[in-house]
């Protein structure tokens, strides 16, 4: 027992010693030029980060994080970043000169056991990393991010330029559901855009600007900002004639049919119809290649009430008479400078009589039912007549019933 206790004691003290040795052995000290005690720095200055460790023979490594990913400082190619020392000296230095936002981030120095970090927060437009968005034309909500190489992050002011005027989207009342700006630092103060129409009329450039209110030295309203773009592929849908939700459409054989494709956000780019053949190849359908099919436009399906870029256009694929061979998969496709968009419809061809079969079935059912009732009724009347005839020679209930049964059987 005493031996186990002393063993435990030794283990605990060894652990405590290790923790004491490992903690705080790496340390970053900083010198700045011009000297300032601010969290946020002006561009153009210099900063020197000196990392030391009291672990002998340990190699010091530097990494920098922009808030999303971390990379080794040696991978940074900048004439304004100079790395010195590091190999077994217990000391390594980073000299950042002519500071700019793209040199900013969290600098982490590590000797493999412990580490220390320092946030280099430079307030210029390069400290902002726009995250451009390319979405489908049908998306109803989109979130725009503007990342910051700052720790802590500053609140963002989001702006939208319409005509010659910048609108501050933070100030749009909440009941107007077009835009909302997050107040959450952890998520990075993103902008949420809500599209009220199917095709977004709100695509294009947005500005994110650091709100430097309350940051010492930056109160004079400097616009530290960048542009974030939101672009979409066109919106393609089928008009009311084709079921767009089920993606399938039934046609009746030997009758005419139209498939209406409505497109917005495609500018003047062509709308193309094609058919997927049985072997999977796409066959482009063109106007006038045969007599049974045609391609035209139906403006009745077009919403002319939108701005020019979102103007809807239609392409109608018409069948003069539908044949069995027309069944299959049809694709309506268009593009804009941001990409291709398409919709697919499965065409099913039914026989003219096919629709009638259920009805005929019901009719047949009714006829058979009527016949059964009629026959039954007739039989009942007949047996009642038999009964009346039997009455005079009545000898008891059982006898009468037997007689009735024999008469029924003999009629079969
Ligand atoms: C975050 O970093 C990953 C890789 O480290 C990169 O693929 C991704 O695009 C980055 N995200 C943003 C929003 O920049
Ligand atoms: C400092 O950086 C700015 C832009 O970041 C550049 O215009 C200028 O020439 C640089 N100055 C020196 C001395 O490298
Ligand atoms: C657009 O939608 C299609 C499916 O409809 C999807 O495969 C594609 O990834 C989407 N593209 C974007 C940019 O969201
Ligand atoms: C918000 O959306 C509605 C409906 O589309 C529109 O009438 C209104 O002008 C929009 N407001 C702003 C600030 O864009
Ligand atoms: C910037 O931040 C200050 C302080 O939080 C706030 O009062 C002000 O409204 C913000 N500016 C904008 C344009 O949102
Ligand atoms: C697929 O079928 C079409 C006709 O339906 C034909 O023109 C084409 O050559 C075929 N392709 C292959 C790879 O078999
Ligand atoms: C297709 O051809 C018909 C008849 O030649 C014509 O009226 C129609 O405008 C054409 N459609 C297109 C999209 O060119
Ligand atoms: C836009 O729509 C409204 C109502 O839906 C209609 O009264 C008006 O005439 C339309 N304007 C155009 C240019 O089509």
Mean pLDDT: 82
Question: How many helices?
Answer: 3
What's the number of domains? Answer: 4
Low-confidence stretches: 391-412
Report the bound ligands by name, code or SMILES: 2-acetamido-2-deoxy-beta-D-glucopyranose
In CATH, the homologous superfamily of the largest domain goes by the name Immunoglobulins
In quaternary terms, these chains amount to single chain
H/E element order: HEEEEEEEEEEEEEEEEEEEEEEEEEEEHH
User: What level of helicity do the residues show?
Assistant: 10-25%
Tell me the span between the first and last alpha carbons. 105 Å
Question: What amount of the residues lies in strands?
Answer: 35-45%
- How would the global form be characterised? elongated
Give a description of the structure.
The protein folds into 4 domains: 2-122, Immunoglobulins (Immunoglobulin-like, Sandwich), CATH 2.60.40; 126-232, Immunoglobulin-like (Sandwich), CATH 2.60.40; 235-351, Immunoglobulin-like (Sandwich), CATH 2.60.40; 355-411. The termini are far apart. It has helices at residues 2-22, 356-390, 397-411, and strands spanning 26-33, 40-41, 46-53, 61-65, 70-72, 81-85, 91-96, 105-110, 115-122, 128-131, 133-135, 141-148, 156-162, 165-168, 179-181, 191-194, 204-210, 225-232, 235-238, 248-252, 257-264, 272-276, 282-285, 293-296, 313-319, 328-336, 339-350. Helices cover 17% and strands 38% of the residues. The chain is elongated and about 120 Å long. It is built from 3 helices and 27 strands. Helix 2 packs across helix 3 (397-411). It has a 5-stranded mixed beta sheet with strand order 2-9-8-4-5, with no helix packed on it. Strands 11-18-17-13-14 form a 5-stranded mixed beta sheet, with no helix packed on it. A 5-stranded mixed beta sheet has the order 20-27-26-22-23, with no helix packed on it. By secondary structure, it is α+β, with helices and mostly antiparallel strands. This is Ig-like domain-containing protein. Keywords: Disulfide bond, Glycoprotein, Immunoglobulin domain, Membrane, Signal, Transmembrane, Transmembrane helix.
């Amino acid at each position: 027992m005493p031996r186990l206790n002393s063993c435990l004691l030794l283990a605990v003290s060894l652990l405590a010693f290790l923790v004491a040795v490992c903690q705080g052995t790496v340390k970053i000290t900083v010198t700045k030029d011009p000297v300032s005690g601010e969290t946020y720095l002006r561009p153009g200055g210099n900063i020197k980060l000196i990392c030391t460790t009291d672990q002998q023979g340990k190699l010091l490594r530097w990494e920098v994080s922009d808030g999303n990913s971390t990379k080794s400082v040696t991978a940074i190619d900048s004439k304004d970043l100079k790395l010195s020392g590091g190999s077994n000296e217990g000391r390594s230095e980073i000299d950042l000169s002519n500071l700019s936002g793209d040199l900013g981030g969290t600098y982490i120095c590590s000797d493999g056991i412990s580490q220390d970090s320092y946030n280099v927060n430079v307030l210029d437009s390069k400290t902002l990393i726009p995250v451009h968005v390319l979405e489908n034309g049908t998306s109803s909500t989109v979130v725009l991010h503007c990342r910051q190489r700052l720790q802590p992050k500053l609140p963002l002011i989001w702006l939208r330029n319409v005509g010659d005027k910048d609108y501050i989207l933070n100030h749009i009342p909440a009941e107007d559901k077009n835009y909302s700006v997050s107040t959450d630092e952890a998520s990075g103060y993103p902008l949420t855009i809500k599209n009220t129409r199917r095709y977004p009329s709100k695509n294009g450039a947005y500005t994110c600007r650091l709100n430097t209110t309350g940051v010492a030295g930056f109160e004079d309203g400097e616009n530290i900002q960048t542009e974030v773009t939101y672009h979409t592929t066109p919106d393609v849908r089928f008009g009311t004639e084709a079921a767009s939700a089920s993606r399938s459409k039934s046609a009746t054989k030997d009758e005419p049919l139209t498939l209406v494709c409505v497109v917005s956000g495609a500018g003047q780019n062509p709308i193309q119809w094609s058919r997927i053949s049985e072997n999977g190849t796409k066959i482009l359908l063109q106007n006038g290649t045969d007599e049974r099919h045609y391609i035209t436009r139906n403006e009745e399906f077009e919403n002319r009430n939108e701005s020019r870029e979102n103007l809807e256009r239609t392409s109608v694929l018409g069948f003069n008479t539908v044949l069995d061979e027309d069944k299959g998969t049809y694709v309506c496709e268009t593009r804009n400078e941001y990409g291709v968009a398409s919709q697919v419809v499965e065409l099913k061809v039914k026989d003219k009589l096919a629709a009638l079969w259920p009805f005929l079935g019901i009719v047949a059912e009714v006829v058979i039912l009527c016949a059964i009732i009629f026959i039954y009724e007739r039989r009942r009347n007949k047996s009642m007549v038999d009964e009346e005839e039997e009455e005079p020679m009545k000898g008891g209930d059982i006898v009468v019933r037997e007689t009735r049964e024999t008469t029924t059987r003999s009629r079969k």
